[in-house]
Specification:
Number of domains: 1
Radius of gyration: 16 Å
Structural class: alpha+beta
Mean pLDDT: 80
Low-confidence stretches: 24-36
Oligomer: single chain
Strand content: 35-45%
Number of strands: 7
Helix content: 25-40%
CATH topology: Immunoglobulin-like
Order of helices and strands: HHEEEEEEE
Largest sheet: 4 strands, antiparallel
Distance between the termini: 22 Å
Strand order of the largest sheet: 1-2-7-6
CATH architecture: Sandwich
Number of helices: 2
CATH class: Mainly Beta
C-alpha cells in the first residue's frame, strides 16, 4: 500500500469516527446534545490547536485525555449530564508535550505532532 493510500484510509477512518460520534451523541445526548460545546480544531503543521467552549467556574472539573491518535474532553454541564467531545487525529501526537489552558470560558489544547524518524537504508 502506498503512502497516499494510507493517508486516504486514515482520513476515511477519521471521518467515519466523527460521523458515528455525532450520531451516537445525538442518540444518547438528550439534554447534553443541546448544550454541546463548540470545538474548533486547527492544524498548524507541527501541532494541532483545539479550542472548546467550557463555561465552567472551576477548570479543574474538566477532564482531558489524549492518546497518540485521539483526544477526549469531558465537561460538566451544570444540571445537564456531562458533555463529551471525542476527536480522532490524522497524525500521531506527543502526549507528554500536550498542554491545556483554560481562560475566559475557553479551553485551549495544544497537541504537538510526533515527527517521523528517518531510517537509513543499508
Amino acid at each position: 500500500m502506498k503512502g497516499s493510500d494510507i493517508t486516504r484510509l486514515r482520513d476515511f477512518e477519521r471521518a467515519c469516527d466523527e460521523l458515528f460520534d455525532e450520531w451516537l451523541g445525538r442518540w444518547h445526548g438528550g439534554a447534553a446534545a443541546a448544550v454541546s460545546p463548540s470545538a474548533v480544531i486547527v492544524d498548524r503543521g507541527d501541532r494541532y490547536e483545539v479550542r472548546i467552549e467550557a463555561a465552567v467556574e472551576d477548570p479543574e472539573v474538566i477532564h482531558v485525555e489524549v492518546t497518540e491518535v485521539s483526544l477526549t474532553v469531558r465537561i460538566p454541564a451544570g444540571t445537564h449530564p456531562e458533555v463529551e467531545r471525542r476527536m480522532s487525529l490524522t497524525h500521531a501526537v506527543d502526549r507528554e508535550s500536550t498542554t491545556a489552558q483554560w481562560a475566559d470560558g475557553v479551553l485551549t489544547i495544544v497537541l504537538p505532532k510526533l515527527r517521523g524518524r528517518r531510517i537509513k537504508v543499508v
